[in-house]
Structure formats: C-alpha cells, structure tokens
UniProtKB/TrEMBL annotation:
The lineage of its organism: Bacteria, Thermotogati, Deinococcota, Deinococci, Deinococcales. NCBIfam families: conserved hypothetical phage tail region protein. InterPro entries: CHP02241, Phage_T4_Gp19. One of its GO terms (molecular function) is structural molecule activity. Coiled coil: none annotated. This is Phage tail protein. PANTHER family: CONSERVED HYPOTHETICAL PHAGE TAIL PROTEIN.
C-alpha cells in the first residue's frame, strides 16, 4: 500500500445532529451507532447423521444513540423530551442525520436514523470544586440507521 492510497483513521472534533436538514445541536461525544442480530440456534443432523448446531441471524436490534454536550441556555432537547413525557409520540418521532466533523469543521462521516425519539435525558451533575463543563446527555431510540457518504 502506498502513502497515496492509505486511508488514515478519521479524527473527531465534534458531532452535529440535523432534523429536516437543519442543524439542531453540536455534541462532543456520540456513542451507540451500531446494530446487532440476535443469534438463533437449533440442532440438526448433517448428511452423515451427526448432530450439528446451526446458528442463524434472528431479529435485528439497533443500539440507542447517546449524545453528550456542554449545557447551554438552549432548551431544544428538553422540549423534544417533553413531547414524549406528554404522550405526543407522533410529534416526537423524527428522522435525522448525525455528522462527524474534523478539527477544521469539515464533515467527514455521517449516519442517518429513522423514527427516532428521546428515551432518556439527563441533566448535568454539578461539582463546585471542578472546573469542568457541565454536561447534559440525550439518549435517542430509533428504528434503523445507516452510514451515508458525505461531501462530493
């Protein structure tokens, strides 16, 4: 492999989240972009009469997405979570895009997700002795995601 064909790992600076092509937040951490298949096992017999264990993919499960950011005076996540708390699920469900940005602010990777809603929202924990930024955490439950190309 030559230096010109080598693909270096992407360096993350921050993540942005968009709904309806409008950026609604920038986050310092994003976890949970993943899926797994439940494994279904059953016993069978091969053509020589020997017992074998067959393992097949079962139900697909998507991980919850967890986003963390420094708390600001923006109430968007709290308003979205309130829709769920009030039982307004049709209003709360949204599809969107999470975009990874590099240190220059350029998009370098993106994932879309479908029919998402905020299943959990945690406010910051305060420690008066700490100089750290207060962090709020949003957990998004969704019905599917995929990695999509960015840029030209």
């Amino acid at each position: 492999m030559t230096a010109s064909t080598r693909k270096d790992p992407l360096v993350a600076a921050y993540f942005s989240v968009q709904f309806d092509n409008k950026v609604v937040g920038a986050f310092r951490e994003c976890t949970g972009l993943g899926s797994e298949s439940q494994v279904v096992e059953y016993r069978a017999t091969d053509d020589k009469g020997r017992a074998v264990l067959i393992r097949e993919p079962g139900t697909m499960k998507y991980n919850d997405i967890v986003l963390k950011r420094g708390i600001t005076n923006d109430m968007d996540m709290w308003g979205w979570r309130q829709q769920v708390e009030e039982g307004k699920m049709d209003e709360a469900r949204r599809s969107g895009t999470i975009t990874l940005h590099n240190q220059k602010g350029e998009p370098v990777a993106a994932w879309t997700f479908e029919r998402a809603w905020p299943s959990k929202l945690n406010g910051p924990t305060y420690d008066a002795k700490s100089n750290e930024v207060a962090i709020e955490e949003l957990t998004i439950t969704h019905e599917g995601y995929k990695r999509v190309p960015v840029g030209g």
